Amino acid sequence: MITNTSLEYKGDLYPSKIVSYEQEGDSIFFNTDNKVILRVTILRDSLIRFRFTTKGYFSNDFSYAIDKTQLHGYNFLELTEEETYFLIKTSKVKCKIQKADLRLSIYDLNDLLILEDELGFHWEESYEYGGNIVKMSKSSKDGECFYGLGDKATQMNLKGKRLENFATDQYAYQKEQDPLYKVVPFYIGLHNKQSYGIFFDNTFRTFFDFCQERRNVTSFWAEGGEMNYYFIYGPQMQDVVTTYTDLTGKPELPPLWVLGYHQCKWSYYPESKVKEITSKFRELKIPCDAIYLDIDYMEGFRCFTWSKEYFPDPKRMVAELAEDGFKTVVIIDPGIKIDKDYWVYKEALEKDYFCKRADGPYMKGKVWPGECNFPDYTNPVVREWWAGLFKELISDIGVKGVWNDMNEPAVMEVPNKTFPMDVRHVYDGNPCSHRKAHNIYGTQMARATYHGVKRFAYPKRPFVITRSAYSGAQRYTSSWTGDNVATWEHLWIANIQVQRMCISGMGFTGSDIGGFAEQPTGELYARWIQLGVFHPFCRTHSSGDHGNQEPWAFDEEVINITRKFVSLRYQLLPYLYTMFWQYIEEGIPMLKPLVYYDQDDTQTHYRNDEFIFGNQILVCPILEPNAVGRRMYIPRGEWYNYWTNEFSIGGREVWVDTKFDEIPVFVKAGAIIPKYPVQQYVGELEFDELTLDLYFKIGKEKSVVYEDAQDGYDYKKGRYSFLSFRTIGKEKELIIQLHKEGKYDTPYTKYKINLIGLPFKVTEIEIDNEKVEFNKIEFEANHFLIVDKEFSELHITGE
Prior knowledge:
globular; Gal_mutarotase_sf_dom; 32% strand; Glyco_hydro_31_TIM; DUF5110; Immunoglobulin-like; 9-stranded parallel β-sheet; carbohydrate binding; hydrolase activity, hydrolyzing O-glycosyl compounds
């Protein structure tokens, strides 16, 4: 037997010594004598990219994740050569590259070690597929914690976990089941009160080990592609998350109605059933802005068609629903039924737009319509064609949003639930197999859908939601956490999933309230509603196989709880809208785990349940049955119980009593919380005053309120209102300072200021340095006052 030694398994390979280096602008190239090249690119003083190749040259540099509209630049860059290493220095960090083996370490400017290689970069040649399995291992510090990775059904702190990223249709998944629908290869490390981030931008199947295999070693690897990762320095977690979100991009502002409550089911049909559901919401006075149509609205599950039997006149129906305040959202899947008489199929076939196997035939798989072909959304020509298909749905019929499902991509009745790995993709001019394109297929479908909905919804704003996503998908779409289950365990999972998605750059996310699979009890549904109204995306969704899941499917008490909490969400719409504005403007996550809020307090490092909603509201859901209260951790600072206005000092774990129609909610002292009157849908009411709940504090606090026309693009021309309130509390004085930016004039003319926790009896009020007689303004001693919205400074004094 003749052995070809070049084909033998070689095991792990490593870079050898550096033999040369050169600097080109913001990049430094290090070359080893075994043809490994490390390119270090300084994008910002706190954002460094490390890219390795083992073949002596780099392939085309292309990424679907990176927001190419972002401008990068550093303030300071210095490269020096020492005896055993090269030193790269910015105004934030120092990076040492070892001459012997390319291992690197990163320090702050005080020489505190932030991150260092253990084995560092190494690789294993893949004879079966070609290319390399690329690997990286880092040393982990004692007490180090890890967060992020997007959609994972596990503890907030990932220490001790090994996780996989491969977009997978996981119907009725369970706690710790992995992988799930989304791929976000980004994590945050925290030790010694210093946070950093790693974004491993590789679309192959990737893995992360957070000290599971070896106690003080963290590693990540991919089944192909490059070792290409970004290091982000904090030192605060807020800095890491904001920088990552800037790097991968932010969405545009949604129309305000999208932040309302949505109702969905597999499936509402025929038209009479849809009307029955929407009428019941209005009858029971439970606010609702959107009704969803699942796959049964189509003719034989063919995308972009309507069932003539169930929906004979969809344009009329959609218009009638709109008159009652309901926006219609419809599902669109990637599988296109193989049917020579089906116009979408014929167009794609004629233009050769479907994915192909390696040897040429079209990829064929079974989904809801039966045998289907699948568009290659990595082809820009296909994306443009797909976008154009939405004209009838959006422009002609009046549908307001599109829901992309099954786009992992999911295929039925095959062992791996998805495409064969030999399927070929255009990948925007970088041809590849499905091994590389799988994790971004859903994102590219959502991207094409977004551009179509946006084109035909104009001058209104688009709404798209997707089940599968890769880093950067937030630029095009919202998401939900997939096919969950009506169990208490899944309520716990949903709470953590949405927090984790928010700090992983993909904040516009929610769960199927009540659980998609199986049937919740009334108590579980009520507790889920109480959590879901504090998630950025708020929708009840269920499988029709398991019974009804509308609020009235339960008893009167559950109906009342649903009405109470959904109404609270509608009151808080200006607060939610402001949260979203700060997310798109500054990359600030809409939900903040306690460790994000206060990383210096080690008591927050392993908390799962509590989170900060926006900047100033603390929420802790009830996650078990028969609860009359729960223990929770109130973070450092001063807080008011939302329900009782009782004042609390934070930094401690406490027992909080609750009723069935309450969960623990606290408001930060000093905050001003804006509220609208309860509406059955966004835009139902005209109102002349904005309510401001002011929670007194000795000291200073800042609150902001963003508003605009609630839809359309005038806000991009400066037609918005951004209010900055500064409260200064003293023993017998309260000062409210107001600064306004923007050209939008809100339709209301007054503020109703509710004074909460005021420790003195009001004796005098001054508005803009002029004393005001109590009988000339609406004022109820120590409870509220109503003032004209044009004031700049308000003084309230007392005794």
